[in-house]
Design goal:
By secondary structure, the protein is an alpha+beta fold. It is 45% helix and 17% strand.
């Protein structure tokens, strides 16, 4: 058969078809086509046996070729599809997270929860592995911090505010974790390896924020308390330099007011300095034994002139014998001077102030000092706030009596340093009773242990 005949080209076509089909992995298509070519060649020109043989050779080659692995069918991506897994976080990372005292979440490289320590479970509840952290902590600051830490491969720290279930401030610290396999020793801990996850640590800032707020309020209140008498002094000085220059009566009256305002400022500054000093030494428990009975008696005697001026009297009840407590004498004098002076100034005019000292506790290991007045009493809503700085039940009456608004705050801080307590009982029109409780020293013949870590000794 000549090479240029159409049927002779059937064989050439079948051979090329077999080669291409084998390479492309289309065995079924090649088998069907080669079979049709061979059948057509046999029917049309039976004597052209060469075309038939070549066609069936193509058929045989396609049939014997190893099948090509089929590609997996494509699936549409949905939100429920499992995410591509990042390299596994090491057990060491999870062990360190478990040892942290703060809530800690270990995240995968795409920001999903891989592990939470016990503190995180207490704060957030059990969290399913694989849950996006953005759906757990819904603060926008957290989502932005996670995205920034992943993109920049660096540590990120943000603060955020939670309103539910209670209002709290948190500081969130995010640190990337990198794969260290094959990393030179000098590069361990760097961010040169593949990022395998994130460590998210939450630190509760609520108390710190409250302290900051109290500090801001304290400065504002102190400034206001100092500004008022200063403005009064400036006004009287201006008046004395002007219209009252030659008025002797007005001059004496204004000078008395100026003296009172200067004394008020002096007391305020003294109280501020006392409060600052007490807070500075709050962690140091006094250890010197002092007789609390003698201290209260001394204060009562020193305030008798004030009581007589206010038309009242101090009635003291004290048991015989010493009542020793571990304390600092000057600070305890300040405690009872504030309490008894308040009872004299704000109690009913003419009514007595009762001061009673006695033992308390199952074995008499405590001493109680109760200061009771018979004044108008205090409404229940004011009682919890009495020891706040600059808090006054009646601001105008307090300033009229020369109060600074810091007396009970000083009492509270001194008693905290002495490991004592202050209880307030008051009802409108029934008077008030302030009770101080302190531990007696040497009740068992031994000195009470200093606060600290059990089993340690000072060197």
């Amino acid at each position: 058969m000549p090479r240029n005949t159409p049927l002779s080209r059937y064989g050439d076509f079948a051979v090329w078809l077999a080669l291409l089909g084998r390479r492309a992995g289309r065995q079924r298509w090649v088998i069907a086509t080669a079979s049709l070519i061979a059948l057509a060649a046999f029917v049309l020109v039976p004597q052209f046996w060469l075309a038939i043989c070549l066609s069936w050779a193509a058929l045989l080659a396609a049939a014997l070729a190893p099948p090509r692995a089929a590609a997996p069918p494509r699936r549409r991506a949905t939100g429920d599809e499992p995410q591509r897994r990042a390299p596994a976080l090491s057990a060491d990372v999870k062990a360190l997270a478990s040892a942290l005292p703060d809530p800690c979440l270990v995240l995968s490289a795409d920001g999903r929860v891989a592990y939470q320590n016990r503190r995180a479970q207490d704060l957030l509840g059990p969290v399913a592995t694989g849950r996006p952290v953005s759906s757990l902590l819904r603060a926008p600051e957290i989502s932005a911090a996670v995205a920034s830490a992943i993109a920049r491969r660096r540590e990120v720290t943000v603060e955020y505010f939670e309103r539910i279930p209670v209002s709290r401030w948190f500081e969130a610290h995010l640190a990337p974790v990198f794969e260290q396999a094959g990393t030179p020793p000098e590069a361990v801990g760097s961010n040169t390896g593949a990022m395998i996850g994130l460590v998210l640590v939450l630190h509760d800032l609520t108390k710190q924020k409250q302290v900051e707020r109290m500090r801001v309020d304290f400065v504002a209140n102190a400034s206001h308390e100092l500004r008022t008498p200063l403005a009064s002094l400036a006004g009287f000085i201006e008046t004395l330099q002007g219209s009252a220059r030659d008025d002797a009566g007005a001059r004496e009256r204004f000078l008395d007011i100026m003296r009172a305002q200067a004394f008020r400022m002096s007391r305020l500054i003294d109280d501020l300095m006392s409060l600052s000093r007490i807070e500075l030494d709050a962690h140091l428990r006094p250890s010197a034994p002092v007789d609390i009975g003698d201290i209260v008696s001394h204060v009562a005697d020193s305030l008798k002139p004030l009581a007589e001026a206010e038309g009242t009297a101090i009635r003291l009840q004290r048991p015989e014998g010493p009542l020793l407590v571990s304390g600092e004498r000057d600070e305890l004098v300040q405690v009872f001077q504030n309490l008894i002076e308040n009872a004299i100034k704000y109690g009913a005019s003419g009514g007595p102030v009762d001061v009673a000292i006695g033992r308390a506790g199952p074995q008499g290991q405590r001493v109680e000092i109760a200061v009771r007045d018979h004044g108008p009493g205090i409404a229940p809503e004011h009682v919890p706030r009495l020891t706040e700085r600059f808090y006054r039940v009646d601001e105008a009456h307090s300033r009229e009596k020369g109060g600074t608004g810091l007396g009970l705050a000083i009492v509270k801080h001194i008693l905290n340093r002495h490991r004592g307590t202050l209880d307030v009982a008051s009802k409108p029109n029934e008077g008030s009773c302030f009770t101080v409780r302190l531990e007696l020293a040497n009740v068992t013949g031994e000195r009470p242990p200093e606060p600290g870590i059990p089993g340690t000794k000072e060197k």
